[in-house]
Amino acid sequence: IAAASQAPTTAQYLTLATDSTLTVERVFTAGAGLKTTDAGAGSTYTVAIPSYGRAGMVRALRVFPYALVYVPQSQLESYGRAQPAAQYVGVEDAQDGNAARKRNAVLALAIAESNNVLMIDDDVTSIGMWENNADGVTQHYKLSPAEVAVLVEDGFRMAREARVPLWGINIISDKRAYSVMRPLQLLAPILGPFTGHCLPHGLVYDERMGAKEDYDIWLQAIARHRRTLRFQKWHYVKRDGERGGWYEQRTAAREWEWSQAIMRKWGRRVISYETGLDAMKSVLDARVEIPIPGC
After folding, report:
1. In the beta sheet, which residues pair with residue 14?
2. Average pLDDT for residues 45-74, to the nearest whole number?
3. Four-point Cα dihedral 266, 267, 273, 278, nearest 10
4. Element (H, E) at 120
5. pLDDT of 27
6. Rounded to the nearest 5°, which phi and psi values hold at 136?
7. Where are the beta strands (DSSP E) in 145-269?
8. Considering only CA atoms, which of 140, 129, 148, 121 is closest in space to residue 59?
9. Which of 252, 261, 230 is closest to 151 using CA atoms?
10. Which of 72, 131, 137, 149 could bridge across to 96 with cysteines, CB 3.0–4.6 Å?
């Protein structure tokens, strides 16, 4: 073929490996089923959904249809029957039953697919944002799976450039939680429903923290790296209270114990709860203050 008839090297191609003659190729990596997604030139990411006791109710697949769902080995068959189009990965039953233990097991398995792992709770129903329409009226928009994929791709790219171990999006869906003057935050909590892990980062979920494991690993990241990255414009929406999962473990007594544990570890100046067995909401919502001079 004459040189003049060759395809342009600057065009975007989906390839199976990087090529020194191309400049903006996108690498597709396949394993046993669909295991990774297009995450930009020369890179990939994996979306991992830990799930337990929720066969047929993995709602996050509507947002991330290409995700891998990590379930106990003993539940693989029931999950496969309920949502046969999904891709499942079995986790040893001994590594399940505790939120932190399960998340650590998922990261250990997912890193074999990609160093960029987005961990999503199975009850996340949508990713949204608030934006003014043509008439200047603020409206709520739900992102399509394709739009979410672009968000995740760009999120990992920016997180790598900023050299942060974790990144995420707004944990509050109310439009008052976003300000155009503060599109990014470096010291805002990144919680379990949507956590981007830039591996290897040396962080480990602490099993002693119970359902506070997400606050704890974020505080570990702040203590070690002095920053994480949270995009304020986008937020996640999840359906709380469904049977199965870790929700059934979250009694008032356990929440009180876990809140005491994380306050002992980090100190009440850093993270505090209004604890008490009759104050369920108070032990669910933490008040966090990061004492870093100049931030």
Report:
1. 26
2. 95
3. 100
4. strand 116-120
5. 52
6. 80, 10
7. 166-170, 184-185, 194-198, 229-238
8. 121
9. 230
10. 72
Name the nearest CA neighbour of 273 among 286, 258, 292, 255: 286
The token duo for 156 is 């990992």
The pair phi, psi for residue 65, each rounded to 5°, is -65, -15
- Would you call 146 helix, strand, or coil by DSSP? helix
What CA–CA distance (Å, rounded) separates 242 from 58?
11
CA distance 192 to 211: 9
How far apart, in Å, are the Cα atoms of 171 and each of 24, 53, 104, 292? 33, 25, 22, 22
- The residue type of 270 is V
- Collect contacts of 142-150 with beta carbons under 8 A, ≥24 apart: 143/63, 143/234, 145/62, 145/63, 145/64, 145/65, 148/63, 148/64, 149/37, 149/38, 149/66
Tell whether the model's pLDDT for residue 16 goes beyond 80.
Answer: no
Residue 198, CA distances (Å) to 29, 50, 58, 109, 213 in order: 18, 18, 24, 14, 18
Which pair of structure tokens corresponds to residue 215? 């606050």
What pLDDT sits at residue 23? 65
- Residues 103 and 119 sit within 8 Å (Cβ to Cβ): yes
Model confidence pLDDT, tens digit, residues 165-193: 999 999 999 988 887 788 999 999 999 99
